[in-house]
Amino acid sequence: MAAALDEGSSLILFPEGGRNSSETSLLPFKSGLYHLARARPQVDLVPVWISNLNHVMPKGQIIPVPLICTLAFGAPITIDANETKEAFLARASASLLALSQNAVDQ
Residues 6 or more apart from 42 whose CB is under 8 A from it? Predict the structure, then answer.
């Protein structure tokens, strides 16, 4: 992933590591997001909340289903120089949860 960023590519990451089939808004983030942020601290990570994702991209399907979904984009985040993995992942998760609440409120 770091090499793809170095080549100018954009990446889409799902930091939970798998599909969330629970009632909670987010599962705990896996550490890969932290390690990528640490490897490329100059890269802006833009949190994006996708409403209706499980219907638009059902499990096991390759092509999205043509249903309505909305995207909410947050302010870019970067890792702080001395930020711990736990603190960074908590901050990244909080930024997504805030977007989810805004999506519900609209």
Answer: 78
Angle at which helix 85-105 crosses helix 32-39, to 10 degrees, equals: 110
Angle made by CA atoms 34, 52, 104, in degrees to the nearest 5: 85
Can you list the alpha helix ranges (DSSP code H) found in 20-76? 32-39, 53-56
Within 7-87, strands assigned E span: 48-51, 70-73
- For β-strands 48-51 and 70-73, DSSP reports them as antiparallel
Question: Which residues, listed in sequence order, are joined to residue 50 by a DSSP beta bridge?
Answer: 71
Query: Closest by alpha carbon to 102, among 74, 78, 76, 67?
Result: 74
Query: Rounded distance, CA 91 to CA 59, Å?
Result: 28
Residue with tokens 């909410």: 72
33-52: per-residue pLDDT in tens?
999 999 999 999 999 988 77
Length of the chain: 106
> pTM of the full predicted structure?
0.82
